[in-house]
Amino acid sequence: MRTFDAIIIGAGQAGPPLAARFAAEGRKVALIERHQVGGTCVNTGCTPTKTMVASARAAHVARRAADFGVDIGGGISVDMKRVQARTAEIAGASRSGLESWLSGLDNVTLLRGHARFIGPDRVALDDELLTAPKIFINVGGRAAIPDIEGLSDIPYLTNSDMVGLDRLPAHLLVLGGSYIGLEFAQMFARFGSKVTVVERGAHLIGREDPEVSEAVRGFLEDEGITVMTGAECIRVERGG
């Protein structure tokens, strides 16, 4: 059994800085990650989505070049394989940088595998046993799949799938009109997809004031996005 002063399960946004803080105090830390270092933000959230937003904005600006007296000739097309490759490269660089930083920290041991508790101060990592008086859980989150009739019978995409998509859907239907859904809606509309947003509530991004929500709806509709609100009776089925 290996003994540490602290065990941190999950190397997402909170795990690495917590490990570094303990290490700076001279404490021996095990940081356990079963998938990708960096968690949601680095791998399927902030970093890849903002990279894709930048590509979408470039396409949007290019299409409006004539409004500024710039003639670029011909039509604007988007190569989604190149967009996805650039996204993966930037996210990968962030992940590699974080891994390199962690490997250079004294007193921090980065371990790979699936951790499970076998006692109040003990963790099993595959066939190895670890113990520490302090154990922190930083396992992050995943997409919640809504209970919508027929959804389990069709292929669908989550936010994690979207950042790895290397093709342009002819029509993208976004179920849910809050921040993440609208971010993907606008970027894919700018890439060239027909986009429809379906929201159960009376307004998009329901946590905002109605005036703000309606202003955002106007921006999206001006870019050709179809917005449907108050959609309570939603079901899906495969057709064609």
Provide a concise account of the structure shown.
The protein has helices at about 15-25, 40-45, 45-65, 80-105, 160, 180-190, 210-220, and strands at about 1-5, 5-10, 30-35, 110, 115-120, 120-125, 130, 135, 170-175, 195-200, 225-230. It is an alpha/beta fold and about 240 residues long.
Specify the structural class: alpha/beta
| CATH-derived topology of the largest domain | FAD/NAD(P)-binding domain
Which band does the percent of strand residues land in? 15-25%
Mind telling me which CATH architecture of the largest domain this is? 3-Layer(bba) Sandwich
Q: Describe the oligomeric state of these chains in a short phrase.
A: single chain
Instruction: Identify the CATH class of the largest domain.
Output: Alpha Beta
- Integer-rounded radius of gyration: 22 Å
Major sheet: 4 strands, mixed
Helical stretch tally: 7
Order of helices and strands: EEHEHHHEEEEEHEHEHE
Strands of the biggest beta sheet: in what spatial order? 1-7-6-5
Distance between the termini: 58 Å
